[in-house]
């Protein structure tokens, strides 16, 4: 699962089709690999998530995913959920997951997937992309800054926004 890509297999990036069994399996496999990575929490997806994830994404018209394949091997995934900016009165797209298999990192797989996310988001009329990243994930931060992301703030005197969560169950 972490072997380097074959130089004979060019990278293909596409919008995932939740009804395509190959894409569905790739989404679950890649998200599970990401969940087990220290940047993803270090624990595998639950059996419930593995069984229901793609069906639940497909049931949400505001969700979309992007996949990267090296030959016939799925090597990258981005899951996105459309939200809404009240200040701009336009949609925004939250990049919820960015996952690249370890053996394929450093090859601009994430950058290529995020370029397609940008394109899809513009087609949807989104005003911006948002994402969260752990402070210790330096390679991801470097990627995001290189392609134009920056910390969120309105007034520098008020500082940068922080990401909070509250589990409901």
How would you portray this structure in words?
The protein has 169 residues and is α+β, with helices and mostly antiparallel strands. 31% of the residues lie in helices and 24% in strands. It is built from 4 helices and 5 strands. The chain has helices spanning 21-36, 47-58, 109-123, 138-146; strands at 11-15, 63-70, 73-85, 90-100, 129-131. A 5-stranded mixed sheet has the order 1-2-3-4-5, sandwiched between helices. Strand 3 and strand 4 (90-100) form a beta hairpin. The longest helix has 16 residues, at 21-36. It is globular and about 50 Å long.
List the helices and strands and how they pair.
Layout: E1 11-15, H1 21-36, H2 47-58, E2 63-70, E3 73-85, E4 90-100, H3 109-123, E5 129-131, H4 138-146
Parallel strand pairs: 4-5
Antiparallel strand pairs: 1-2, 2-3, 3-4
Helix pairs in contact: 1-2
Keywords:
single chain, 169 residues, alpha+beta, 4 helices, 5 strands, 31% helix, globular
């Amino acid at each position: 699962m972490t072997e380097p890509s074959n130089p004979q297999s060019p990278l293909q990036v596409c919008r995932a089709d939740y009804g395509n069994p190959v894409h569905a399996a790739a989404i679950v496999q890649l998200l599970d690999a990401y969940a087990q990575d220290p940047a993803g929490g270090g624990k595998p997806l639950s059996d419930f998530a593995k069984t229901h994830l793609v069906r639940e994404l497909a049931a949400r018209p505001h969700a979309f995913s992007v996949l990267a394949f090296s030959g016939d091997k799925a090597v990258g995934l981005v899951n996105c959920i459309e939200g809404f900016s009240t200040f701009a009165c336009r949609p925004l797209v939250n990049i919820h997951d960015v996952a690249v298999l370890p053996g394929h990192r450093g090859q601009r797989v994430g950058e290529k997937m995020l370029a397609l996310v940008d394109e899809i988001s513009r087609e949807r009329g989104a005003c911006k992309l948002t994402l969260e990243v752990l402070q210790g994930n330096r390679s991801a931060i470097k990627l995001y800054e290189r392609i134009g992301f920056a910390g969120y703030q309105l007034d520098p005197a008020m500082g940068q926004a922080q990401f909070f969560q509250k589990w409901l169950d």
